[in-house]
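Slide 14.
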Amino acid sequence: MYSVHESDVYCVAKGKARHPYEFGSKVALAVTHKQGLVVSMQALERAAYDGHTLGATLEKCKELSGKQVKRVFVDRGYKGHGVTQCASFESRKE
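Slide 15: predicted structure.
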Protein backbone atom coordinates (compact mmCIF):
# COMPACT_ATOMS: atom_id res chain seq x y z
CA MET A 1 0.00 0.00 0.00
CA TYR A 2 1.42 3.35 -1.08
CA SER A 3 -1.26 5.68 0.23
CA VAL A 4 -3.58 5.39 3.21
CA HIS A 5 -5.99 8.02 1.87
CA GLU A 6 -6.06 6.91 -1.77
CA SER A 7 -6.26 3.19 -2.42
CA ASP A 8 -5.80 3.44 -6.21
CA VAL A 9 -2.22 4.73 -6.06
CA TYR A 10 0.40 2.52 -7.65
CA CYS A 11 4.14 2.58 -8.16
CA VAL A 12 4.83 3.31 -11.83
CA ALA A 13 8.34 2.58 -13.17
CA LYS A 14 9.48 5.37 -15.48
CA GLY A 15 12.78 3.90 -16.66
CA LYS A 16 14.64 7.18 -16.22
CA ALA A 17 17.80 7.61 -14.17
CA ARG A 18 16.82 10.79 -12.37
CA HIS A 19 13.23 9.79 -11.48
CA PRO A 20 12.92 6.01 -11.85
CA TYR A 21 9.51 5.78 -10.16
CA GLU A 22 6.29 7.73 -9.79
CA PHE A 23 3.38 7.13 -7.49
CA GLY A 24 -0.13 7.72 -8.75
CA SER A 25 -2.64 6.45 -11.26
CA LYS A 26 -2.51 6.41 -15.04
CA VAL A 27 -5.15 8.08 -17.16
CA ALA A 28 -5.78 8.11 -20.90
CA LEU A 29 -6.81 11.43 -22.42
CA ALA A 30 -8.10 12.09 -25.94
CA VAL A 31 -7.72 15.76 -26.84
CA THR A 32 -8.56 17.54 -30.10
CA HIS A 33 -5.52 18.66 -32.05
CA LYS A 34 -6.38 22.30 -32.72
CA GLN A 35 -8.61 23.43 -29.85
CA GLY A 36 -7.31 21.16 -27.07
CA LEU A 37 -10.81 20.05 -26.11
CA VAL A 38 -10.86 16.86 -24.01
CA VAL A 39 -13.21 14.41 -25.75
CA SER A 40 -12.44 11.29 -23.71
CA MET A 41 -10.83 10.47 -20.39
CA GLN A 42 -10.36 7.09 -18.69
CA ALA A 43 -8.70 6.01 -15.47
CA LEU A 44 -6.51 2.98 -16.17
CA GLU A 45 -6.04 -0.01 -13.92
CA ARG A 46 -2.60 -0.51 -12.44
CA ALA A 47 0.36 0.45 -14.62
CA ALA A 48 -0.99 -0.55 -18.02
CA TYR A 49 1.42 -0.34 -20.97
CA ASP A 50 0.52 2.75 -23.03
CA GLY A 51 0.48 0.86 -26.34
CA HIS A 52 -2.19 -1.52 -25.07
CA THR A 53 -4.59 1.27 -24.07
CA LEU A 54 -4.81 3.19 -27.36
CA GLY A 55 -7.46 0.99 -28.99
CA ALA A 56 -9.80 1.21 -26.00
CA THR A 57 -9.28 4.98 -25.77
CA LEU A 58 -10.18 5.44 -29.45
CA GLU A 59 -13.29 3.28 -29.06
CA LYS A 60 -14.40 5.30 -26.02
CA CYS A 61 -13.83 8.52 -27.96
CA LYS A 62 -15.99 7.20 -30.83
CA GLU A 63 -18.70 6.15 -28.36
CA LEU A 64 -18.82 9.56 -26.69
CA SER A 65 -18.50 11.80 -29.76
CA GLY A 66 -20.23 9.64 -32.37
CA LYS A 67 -17.35 10.16 -34.81
CA GLN A 68 -14.45 7.94 -35.84
CA VAL A 69 -10.99 9.36 -35.07
CA LYS A 70 -9.10 9.96 -38.35
CA ARG A 71 -5.63 10.85 -37.05
CA VAL A 72 -3.97 10.20 -33.72
CA PHE A 73 -0.80 11.87 -32.41
CA VAL A 74 1.03 9.84 -29.76
CA ASP A 75 4.34 9.87 -27.92
CA ARG A 76 6.96 7.12 -28.18
CA GLY A 77 5.32 5.16 -25.33
CA TYR A 78 2.70 3.97 -27.83
CA LYS A 79 5.23 2.30 -30.14
CA GLY A 80 3.85 -0.94 -31.53
CA HIS A 81 0.24 -0.21 -30.57
CA GLY A 82 -1.24 -2.11 -33.53
CA VAL A 83 -4.15 0.29 -34.14
CA THR A 84 -5.14 0.28 -37.82
CA GLN A 85 -8.47 2.18 -37.90
CA CYS A 86 -6.78 5.59 -38.17
CA ALA A 87 -3.51 7.23 -39.21
CA SER A 88 -0.98 7.32 -36.38
CA PHE A 89 1.77 9.91 -35.94
CA GLU A 90 4.47 9.21 -33.37
CA SER A 91 6.73 11.89 -31.86
CA ARG A 92 10.38 11.78 -32.81
CA LYS A 93 13.40 11.58 -30.55
CA GLU A 94 15.36 14.81 -30.54
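Speaker note: The CA atoms of residues 12 and 22 lie 5 Å apart.
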